[in-house]
Amino acid sequence: MNQLSDRINNLSTSATLAMAAKARELRAEGKDIIGLSLGEPDFNTPDFIKDAAIEAINQNYNSYTPVDGYVDLKEAIINKFKRDNNLSYTLPQIVVSTGAKQSLANIASVMLNAGDEVILPCPYWVSYSDIVKLSDGVPVEVQTSIDNDFKMTAEQLEAAITPKTKMIWYSSPCNPSGSVYSKEELRALADVLKKHPNIYVVSDEIYEHINFKGGHFSMAEFDDMYDRTITVNGVSKAFAMTGWRIGYVGAPDWIARACNKIQGQVTSGANCIAQRAVIKALEADPSSIKYMVDEFKERRQLILKLLGEIEGFKTNEPEGAFYVFPNISSYFGKTIKGKTINNATDFSLFILEEALVATVTGEAFGNKDCIRISYAASQDEIIEAIKRIKTALS
Ligand code: PMP
Ligand code: GLU
């Protein structure tokens, strides 16, 4: 008999992590899998950050930290928000957590009551819907179109709002589409929200620095949105620090205090050594990580060119992050090598089995027609992977 709670029984497994685990399993069986499923930079953490961590260990940083993070780390975050985003926060408005994923889980648990609706423009980052559900919230998917670069319009937002709408969660640059909302596009959404003062926004800016066009804009920069926006960020992507597990929020202080309270009962402060190292990461000029962004940009050009040579792939031009999200629905209903492809999950599995390339089905991101390909891999791996996909489909 299943003794587990309804809460866990109703939760999906993270599709990105599941695909990464499957790729690892197949590799252990001796299969030559190219992993383009996980959104994880393939660079080393920069030396100046590693050195700060080593120094912290030698200085005996080994105790519990304040639940919401070391004060000097929070000061570094405040300076970063000012320097990069023109946002002014005070110490009580900042909470450091064990990855932006925990920041998001904190927000859901402090903001949502059962039945509260959270608007998620699709495609959205894989964990949003399940984090919302875990707090008894109801994800409301808004389908966007590749022709509008996968962005939600003001009209679509307006149409999705109901008396139960509590929040909107989006990422810009977006995982998985790579789309970046411009200031004007955000203003149009904010204008709709003017009429609905009780709706709050989560602006997930974890890919902020991986932006090929420049021009990152934060929703909280609008004066009328500042008190209603929770800005989420972290070091996993920009500084190649996924395993270090540090994320943070800048939020209205009553929300930040509530995040602090829940974190104090669930995990306490984030890892002390990682926090010390992140101070150095955030104090550094963003130009210190430009070499990674430049390389991602080259890879984007490469993968777009190669995908353009395969029949039936329709792709937007991502402006940030390190993913492409091609529409592959022209393959639905086809049988190749005896396998029938009826949906994006079939397509992703077909590629895994026949081309030994791991991707993630778009269904995990709320889109049934696309797959996500991460290009956080070497150019050689990208070339080989797309060659294999092309061969498998021909
Ligand atoms: N938001 C987005 C959009 C992401 O892609 C990720 C991926 N890791 C996260 C949040 C969580 O990041 P982390 O927990 O590693 O800080
Ligand atoms: N955010 C990354 C991704 O989308 C890492 C995996 C995860 O945290 O789910 O692949």
From TrEMBL:
Instruction: Name the UniProt key words of this record, in alphabetical order.
Output: Aminotransferase, Pyridoxal phosphate, Transferase
**Which InterPro entries does the entry mention?**
Aminotransferase_I/II_large, AspAT/PAT-like, NHTrfase_class1_PyrdxlP-BS, PyrdxlP-dep_Trfase, PyrdxlP-dep_Trfase_major, PyrdxlP-dep_Trfase_small
* Gene3D superfamilies membership: Aspartate Aminotransferase, domain 1, Type I PLP-dependent aspartate aminotransferase-like (Major domain)
Question: What are the boundaries of the signal sequence?
Answer: none
PROSITE patterns given in the database record:
AA_TRANSFER_CLASS_1
An example GO BP is: amino acid metabolic process
Mention one GO molecular function: transaminase activity
Out of the domains of life, which is the source?
Bacteria
UniProt protein name? Aminotransferase
